[in-house]
Design brief:
Distance between the termini: 37 Å
Structural class: alpha+beta
Number of strands: 2
Low-confidence stretches: none
Strand order of the largest sheet: 1-2
Largest sheet: 2 strands, antiparallel
Oligomer: single chain
């Protein structure tokens, strides 16, 4: 049987959403990831800080909050 490709992975380390040590909002998986950016989800505060440092160095820091990656795109 083939494994399905994971849609949401940490953009810094590649850890898949759903792994036991992924950080979730309020500690609950059904609340979604605790951290994300305009580039995707982040698994931990360490990856969030690393991602921020990289974007700061690249000069690509956002000027507004990123959209929730789990929001429905339909309006």
């Amino acid at each position: 049987m083939l494994a399905r490709p994971e849609k949401f992975k940490c953009v810094e380390c590649g850890k898949a959403l759903g792994t036991p040590d992924f950080a979730y909002h309020k500690g609950r998986m059904d609340h979604g990831p605790a951290y994300w950016s305009g580039h995707g989800v982040l698994c931990s505060i360490q990856c969030s800080l690393a991602h921020h440092r990289k974007r700061m160095a690249d000069g690509t820091l956002p000027t507004s909050p990123a959209r929730d990656p789990f929001e429905d795109d339909r309006d």
